[in-house]
Amino acid sequence: MKPTFELLKRDTTSGARLGKLTTPHGTIDTPVFMPVGTQGTVKGLVPERVKELGAKIILGNTYHLYLRPGHELIRDFGGLHRFMNWDGPILTDSGGFQIYSLATLRKLEEEGATFQSHIDGSTHFIGPEKCIEIQEAIGSDIMMCLDECLPYPATRDYAEKSLGMTTRWAKRCKDARKSDNQALFGISQGGMYGELRERGIAELTTIGFDGYALGGLSVGEPKELMWETVGKSAPLLPEEKPRYLMGVGTPEDIVECVYCGIDMFDCVMPTRNARNGMLFTNGRKIAIRNAHYRDDESPLDSECDCYTCKNYSRAYLRHLFIAREILAIVLNTIHNVRHFIRLMEKIREAIKNDDYENFRRDFKSKNSDVDTD
Amino acid sequence: MKPTFELLKRDTTSGARLGKLTTPHGTIDTPVFMPVGTQGTVKGLVPERVKELGAKIILGNTYHLYLRPGHELIRDFGGLHRFMNWDGPILTDSGGFQIYSLATLRKLEEEGATFQSHIDGSTHFIGPEKCIEIQEAIGSDIMMCLDECLPYPATRDYAEKSLGMTTRWAKRCKDARKSDNQALFGISQGGMYGELRERGIAELTTIGFDGYALGGLSVGEPKELMWETVGKSAPLLPEEKPRYLMGVGTPEDIVECVYCGIDMFDCVMPTRNARNGMLFTNGRKIAIRNAHYRDDESPLDSECDCYTCKNYSRAYLRHLFIAREILAIVLNTIHNVRHFIRLMEKIREAIKNDDYENFRRDFKSKNSDVDTD
Asked: pTM score, two decimals?
């Protein structure tokens, strides 16, 4: 079966939407947050735990999996789901962002991207056709088109040229796909230039994809400019297709961009911050290494229902972190991922109750200072 | 309640024994292997997982917990069980071995040991009374006396002097204890000198403890000499009390020393080797990074019933290890700990069936080459 999307509801006072994304590996309520499982694992968690946290779909990284263990190996194992023991939906990115941010000596030409691996410096080429071949070998439920992730700032001239290539690559991706069971999403680029975003989206929708993503955001631009770009671009995307904001973001970003009509998010923030001891609670982030948690018997977040908050004190979490114990990463990751999943549950509930405008206002007033203590 | 030991059975053709150790936090069938939870966690595993693997008792390290997070803090939390969310039995070592092997600038005198922390170089003093105070604050089910862990080789003269002090420290430990709910074990030292072992054990049993340990073994001496020392010392220990061989060992060591009449073992080997990618299977150790596991679809050990072996391929475990994923440590630790626990299950079964002699012969023939591939 080919993944399908059903738009269930539009919020009465904002762009926020409720939807249902059906894939061969399960159904996903949107708006949804996708934990990142870069190298075939959500770092530190067994798949059963990821599921227990309420995650319905995870993201795999094409660039990483192509380099290691290699997409042919994954294909020989019957795909990533089986290889990593995760039977839920998987979305794979196209590798474009990693080629832009991780690989060295990258060279982007009309044919595709030549780059050196960040692991061993070996030289590789990925064009649109190869990008699809890799993602079909991985067997993800949702594939992304290869794109050039535009840096910020970029001149209008460069942004326009880049957009043209991204659009032509998108067309080639669509032509290259063979699988009927995997959705393919197009990616909007164009930097912060509204007119280019508009043109790119028009061209993408003419080609026609199963869903649409906004890419090239959260790459260093001011937060307000990101929100503004999303606010202008999201309404241009086809209403009956899922809308995915790539690599975003903070809880505040998510609340804001759901408001603009985004359905899908992914970000390394909950997992990466967990490893660094930065833990999300309602209204503030906690640096668990801080000395004033030394003898704090209270749970990390008394409102949280996760395994970590139900069973451990801040003092114990601090001890594990200071002692560099692996369990610190495990317990912190459990909490942070659950925090993001719970946020999405609250968001969906608010939209369902025609209350998203209030929810957003309330959230912003409590999270005006999302700073580290 | 004070922990008690019941000797259930002696093997008909060897020194092997079946027993039951009852503590305030649960009952333990012996011979038993205790996974090491140095800093208030079995590295990488949540306590529910440790329990699922069949571990009935874990070991905590007095030296580490005293330095970090500090025993007063643990006492304020109602003890280590509650602090770390493990409701099963805990044995704490005395810190003697860590002072010997980890701390710097240590100075052992009649009064006790002065040493510098391996963490920050701060100076500390632990004598027998302090050692008991710390373990009572931790609230372990079984405490160990402070001892001097004799290096190998040691002169007879030094070994004799050291033994005298270890015995006097043991007496002071017994005098210092206040808790009625915690067992206290004496530790036999004396190096590889049979006569000194004999004298020390006689003195310890005269003082009288709830159990007896053999210490100062597996500190660099040849394996055969260790087995020989255990073989001569174990029968000297009171039959009605549990016998614990500290810090030992390989599966082969365990099989051999159960044969000599040892009831309890602990070792970092399963957990530490897991982190290094050295995995135990029947008859051989596997270095999971080895290239010939790259596309190996088979489980790590087809005879193993652990979560890792039931759900993952060698190829996936190799991928995680090569990619330095945290999940590699988690999955490897699950398997290695389960491997040791299963070994103890088989050992108890063999003793129960009056078949330990055969079991041992069979094990030795299959494990004659416990080398890394």
From this structure: 0.97
